[in-house]
Structure formats: C-alpha cells, structure tokens
Design goal:
Elements (H helix, E strand, L loop, with lengths): L2 E2 L17 H5 L30 H10 L2 H13 L5 H6 L5 H35 L16 E4 L2 E4 L7 H11 L3 E2 L10 H4 L4 H4 L3 H5 L5 H6 L5 E2 L2 E3 L5 E3 L6 E2 L9 E4 L2 E4 L1 H6 L8 H10 L5 H6 L2 H14 L1 E5 L4 H40 L4 H4 L27 E2 L5 E2 L21 E2 L2 H7 L13 E8 L4 H12 L8 E7 L12 H8 L1 E2 L10 E4 L8 E13 L2 E10 L3 H6 L8 H17 L5 H14 L6 E8 L2 E3 L3 H11 L3 E10 L6 H23 L10 E5 L1 E3 L9 E3 L4 H7 L7 H8 L2 H12 L4 E12 L5 H22 L7 E2 L2 E2 H13 L1 H18 L8 H20 L4 H13 L1 H14 L36 H4 L1
Parallel strand pairs: 2-4, 8-11, 15-16, 15-21, 16-20, 23-27
Antiparallel strand pairs: 1-14, 2-3, 3-5, 6-7, 9-10, 10-11, 12-13, 17-19, 18-19, 19-20, 21-24, 22-27, 23-24, 25-26, 28-29
Amino acid sequence: MDIDFLQRDPSRRSRNTLRRKVSQSKSTLSRRSRSLNRPDRAQENLNNNTGTILASSSAAKHRTRKGSSFPGLWTFSSWVLSCCFPTPLLNAVGIRGDGPLQAWREKFALCVIVALMSGFVVFFNLFFQSVLCPDPSTPRAPKGDTFGTLNIRGRLYNTSTAVQPYLATWDPLSRRSPGADISYQFTQPEMPSCAKLSNSFATLRYPCEVNVTCLSLSSLAAGRYGLSMINSSTDYKGQVKNLTSLTPAYSWDVLSNSTILVVRGIIYNLAVYYRQFPDPIPNDRADALLRKASAQLDGTIHFQAASSSLRDSVLSCLTEKYQIGVVDQDPVECITSNVVVLLVYAMVLAVTLIRFVLSVFFSWFIAGRLARDPAKKILESDPYREFKAPVPALRHSTLPTDSDSTVFVEGGGVVAPAYSAVAPQSSGDSLHSPPRKAPSVASLSTISNQPAPAVADSDLYVSLLVTCYSENEESLRATIESLALTEYNNAKKLLFIVADGIITGKGNAKSTPDILIDMLDLDPVIGRDPKPFAYQAVGHDHKKYNMAKVYCGHYVVNDRRVPAVLVVKCGGAAEAESSAKPGNRGKRDSQLVLMNFFNRVMLNEKMTPLDYDMFRKVHHLTGVTPDFYELVLMVDADTYVEPDSLRKMVNCMHNDQRIMGLCGETKIANKRQSWVTAIQVFEYYMSHHLGKAFESTFGGVTCLPGCFCMYRIKARKAGGYTSADWTPILVSPKILEEYCTDDVDTLHHKNLLMLGEDRFLSTLMLRHFPKRRMMFVPSAVCRTVVPERFGTLLSQRRRWINSTVHNLMELVKVNNLCGTFCFSMQFVVFLDLIGTAVFPASLVITYIMIVESAITGYKSVTQFLPTILLICVIFLPAILCVLISRGPVINHFMWMCVYLLSLPIWQIVLPLYSFWHFDDFSWGATRKVDGVDGRGATMVRSGKKEKVMFRKWEEYE
C-alpha cells in the first residue's frame, strides 16, 4: 500500500486532523495528532523579512513594568535607607558602575528591613512585657495572706514584733489565719458617708465599743502595740522595694467565705454585721442588697442593677467601714502584655503543631493513594492510546542558499538544515503542491532508525531532561544510567540531555559534551558531527543569540536501548574564539530550550532552526511527533534516580489530573563523607517530610527542586478528545513570558532569575495556575551528592536562601491560593517569609530566655514559652520519624542529634551570610570549570549582526 511520504499542505495540522478516521490516521507518516492548533498570532518580537532578534514580549512587559510606580518607589527607598553611604565612598571601596551601586543599595535596604524585623522580634520577646508591665515579679501591693500578718482597717501589719500581752493573742492568729481582719478590736474613726445613713449596716457598733474595751487607732499609729505596717517587699533577687499601694491584695481562692463581699474589685468583710444581724432586716433595701450580693463570689452585677442613689450611698459607707483590701490582679497593661505574648506564642506553637499533624496525615492517608497504580478506567480514557506513527526516512540534503529557510549567522554566513525528510523538489514545487509518495512501511523499517512502535499501552510519553554543566563522567553516567534503568516503557521515555556550553569541568580530561557523546550509541543516519543551528537564548545583546548541535541515538545499558537526544550549546563562531565557555547561558536557558520547543510544537508557533532540527530528529528517533509528550522529568547531572521513581510519579499524574507538578524525596548519597554532609542529612529529611508534606495537604508545594521534579507539559480539558482540547501547563505562554525574561533591572528580579530558577518556576506555576496542584511524592526517591566542604555549602545555601526570600515575596502577593485567612497557603507563605528573615534573632533570643529561666527560676508562664517551643522543635521531628519512618528509627534519631547540634549554623551563620550577599549573583564554588574563575568569563562582541530565523513548521517542510 502506498503511503504519503510527507503531507506538505499546512492544513494537515488543523483541527480536522484528529477528526479523520483512524484508518486514514494510520496512513499518514508524520501527522502531529496532538497539537493544539490556534490561529496565527502576531509575532511582535520578530521581523520575518530579516529574522532579526528583537526584544521579546516578556522584555517589553518588563520595560513597561519599569515605568510603574513600584520600582521607582523601591529605588527611592533604597537610596533613602543607604543615604549615609554616598557614591564616592562606595566607589572608593571598589563598588563602581550604576548596576553594582544600585544592587548594593538595594541589598543594604533589604538588610535594614531584616534588621528592623529582627529588632522587633528582640524587643517583643525581651522588652515588650517589661515596658508595659515593669518588673511583674515584684508585687505592687502586699499580699493579703502573707504569713505572720493581720489586717486592721485595710492595712497589713506584721505581728512578730507585737508587745505583750498582744503578742500572745495576735501572733498565733496570724500564723493560723494569715491576713485575718481584726478591725473590730479597734475603735471606729469618723465615717461621714455612714453618718448620713440610718441603715443597720451603717449604724452598727463593734462589741468592744459597747464594752468599752476597744484598742485605740492613734496608739496603733504611734507604735504602742509593737505592730509594723507592711510597706515594702523583697523581689526574687533579694532586693527590698517599696510598695506602690498599702492596701492588701487577696487572691480569689481565699475569698470563699460567705461573709465576704466583692464589688468592683474591692473586698468588704461583713462578718461583724452578719453576727449581729443574722437574719434579713425587713424594709431595709441596703440589707437586702448586701445579702443578695454576698451570696455570690462577686456581687458587682447586683450593685450594677440597683438604683444609682442606693448603690453610691451603700458603696461609700462600705468603703469607710468594712473595706479590708482589693482583689489581687495584675494591672490592665500587664494583663494586656501577657495576653498579647500568649497569643503570639500560641499561634507559633499552633502552626508548628498543625504542620506536624498535617504532615503525618499526608504521609498516612494521601501519599500512598497518589502513587498507587491507576485504575483501569483511567488508563483507558486516552483516545489516542492506539495511535501508530511510522517513522519517515531522513535524507541528507542542502536547501538553496536563497531559500526562505536561510539562517543568518555571525559574519554573514549561512547555515542550512543538515537533512530533509523529503526529496529535493523541482523548481515547480511549492508548499501547497501535492505531497510526494513515500516508500512502504516495510521499507521504512530498513532505512529508519527503528521500527515504528505500536503504542498499545497507556503509559504517558515522558521526556527526561538532564541539564549538564561541568560534572565528571562518573556523575553523568550514574544519572543517565539510573534514568535508563527506570521501570518504564523505553518507547515512552526520551532522554533529553542539554550540555550548557563547551565546558571542561575541573579535573576532567574531556569537555562535558565529549563525555556525553561518547556515552551514546549515535544514530548512523544523523552521524557524529551534526551542524549547529541557531536559537534565541536567554541573555543580553549578543548573548541573546546562540547555536546548538543536536545529537541523537540511544543510551544502551543492560540490553536496554533508550532513545536519547543530546543538545550541545556551542555558541557561534565568534563566541567560540573569544569565550572560555562558548555556548554557556545557564541552567534556565537549558530548561527553556525544551520548554520553548514543546510550546512551539504544541501551539503551532513559529520555530527556530534548532526547534525544527529537534522536531525532525525526535520524530525520526522515537516514531512519534514531539507533541505526544505530556510530562517532563527534570533532573540534575549529579542525581541518581531510583528504578521505581519514574513509575510512581507518572502514576500520580494519572491519578489526579489537577496535578501540574510534583517532586520526590531527595536523599544524600555522600552523607558520611564529612561533617558538612552529615549536618545536611536530617535537614533534607525535614524539608521533605515536614515542609513539603505539609504544603502538599494544600496542594501547593512552593519549591519543586530542580534536581528531581516532574511537570505536566499539557493537560487535557475535561471531556476533551480533540487536539484543541488541550491546555498548555508548563509550556503555557504566560509561564514562558515571565520565565524567558532577561531584562532585569532590580536586585529582586536578579535573585529570582539568576539564582533560584527552580524555585521561581514553581512560583510561576502557582501564580498562574492556583487551582491546580503541586505535590510531594515520598515513594519517588533520588539520591544526590551534596557539598562536602563548608565553603561550598555556604555558596549553595547563599543562593537558596536568597532565592527563597525573593520567591516568597512573590508568592505572598497571590491572593487565590488554597484556603482562607489564617487557614490558607498564603498565610503559611507569609509566616515562612517572616520566619526566614528573623531566623538568626529568633534562635539567639530562645537561647537567652532559656538560660535566664534556668538562672532566675519560675516567674511567669510566658517565661517558659520559648522553652516549650524549643521542646517542640526538638521532639516533634523525633515523633515524626517514629510515625512515618520506613527504616530503623535509631538512624534518623542519630542524624537528628547531629542536626540539632548544628542549629546555629543553619539558623544564624548561613542566613546572615546570605542576607549580606543579596547582591552576589554568582554561583560560587558549587560548579568549577578549568581555566575560569568563579564568576566566569565574558564574550567579546564580534561587531556583526547575529540573526535567528523563525518559521512555521510547514514552511520548514
């Protein structure tokens, strides 16, 4: 049966393609059945006549952002905060140029803000209560139940100094009933308020007045009885301090006597009155009020209900005749300070406990269900699972130099495509001419790379992206081999390896691209020396232009042949001569090579020559067009992936279509290599099983680590069965628009784009798809090599911490994340941002307060709250290990002890170093290259215009 070799009509990528009959689909060689075809859109960044690179839409958007008020306000604020450092002074210490000067001023402004926040934390924890409630440990009034004292007319007296015969009576009473009222043994003074009343309680006379045996108040004041008034107190330090009030204060637990009346915090002793008048007095309103109020512990409510005239007259007389003290309670300002401190500590403690509980809940009830094998009905829901795409033969040819597909390069040279999937056309051929016939499928299998696979299983197509820089052969081979050996259909996974420039790592005999080329079984049709093709890279000016070679073949291990594409960024001819790292554009650019490629394939956008080259080679190698790929697994070149991890992650994508990204657990491969690696083991464990597990309950993991994460390239709309029913996720234009930007004019955007590209990509996904989910899969495991020297760790964490701060600043502005108010992901992000900024101050304060508590002993409950928090920090991780650990708990406990000993490093040294290096955008010592310092080398401009041509896929064909 004759089969069309290539359908050249552009309409073959229209929406009608998938609506054709299955038989006709099978007869088409390279139908791109999954593309989401959209009307052509204006390419504002291209000039099709010349192919000149203009500013991208993201750059244009960024320049528009420059004109807004926020950057101007921030720039002005940074100048105000750093006004004490004039420009000449900064120039004198080596900070020159507008960019470095502005970056330093912004860094200083951020450090000032961090210092102010830390200062507030210090003030709140150490001085807030003492300012509102000075020295709460020293009583302001004498305690009413002080041992060895008696109460006389509302004043407390020490009976140990009394003279005889009074000592024999008063001293035993003061020991048996401390603070007892003996006012009835003394004469009553003049009481004007009571003299106005005729009620019994006001006219009452003491029994000693009737018997004329009362003691004299004047003699008491003169000291004739030997009693001394309590007017001072000794604090917890042994210092004697005068009391601000002489009225004794009684606690509620000693006021249970029914003869005691409390009104508005004032205590009245009515024992004498009730002894003389045990029964209610008829027609005595005051007596009725007193008995009704005395029946309760606090009679204030009854006095409030009485008439104002009765209430005021009775209270005035009670105060003159029966008052013995006040209720012992802190002043309002002390109560306020205690309440505020308790609320803040309770909130922090509640957040800590909630994190713990939800992390355990996720591990027990959610994680296992996510990674289980999908149900049969889910597997059978793919209408394309039986689609079969034979592979076209590739032939070497050269396009005419005056063709529209010419690619302009440095020096005015021309690069033509290395091959074509069609035979050369005659002069009468055109893009819309009838397609030529191709050989039969049987003959194709003899000249193509491999037989066209019949896709009969339900596994999703996965691209395995490996970004490489300067790693050695052992690390590269271990990573690629672990991916090749994953338990997944080899026909459904594609190794997509990107070498970031012609780089020779420190200690390597060969460059990274040469090491990778030697690992692959290269396709004989493509050859070992493909031509480089141009693409639009991330960078400024001349750096925006780059070229790359595309190798294709298989990675062979243990009788497995896994399709592999190797993209080597090599730069143009001028760059190769003048740069120590030709083609190097950074990890973000390596990711964008793949992301832009799938974006243009899926949305039928105009392609760069490199995109088209990759399209044809992927199709040739795998037998399917690139738009079949729905997932991408991103790993670093020093990561080892466990065999079942890929399957677990794909299962999660199958089981929940709302998941747009996920990550597995990253374990440390060299944990016993040095003390630096040892202190990182439990920190990695906690960041996954406590941090990411907690965030997964909200479906919003804020950082998918670039060393091991998976994203959904596109998602099918609910009930969709055509090519137009797909939604781009990772390759969404709004994601790429921000992720591709290279015009950064503030320190904030430089930290986002130059240091933390992995976290920033996660931030963009959450910002633009807040209703979708970012998850953590504990059963998917990888192992990575961590820094073994402290200097390298310092450099790595400086990048991570600074990136975390700036990304949290972006996420906290997203209002539609999961949850509401305090029970929302936005509130959690806000707490994380504040916590990251005040880590150093918080740990120092905790240590200070614990030492102070140990020295001074118990003073108040708020004093021991930091100790309670520290106990939670120490023991909750241990409990977490017991509840979710799958291995020996003793191992986790050992690593936890090592981590706790290193807390000052994690929460003081590393954050402070990072904050002061906000303006350091280098990668430091994490990756070293022979012949290049830590900050790299710059490329000399060639002085000639470098151009990249963008064409439709049909036009290339």
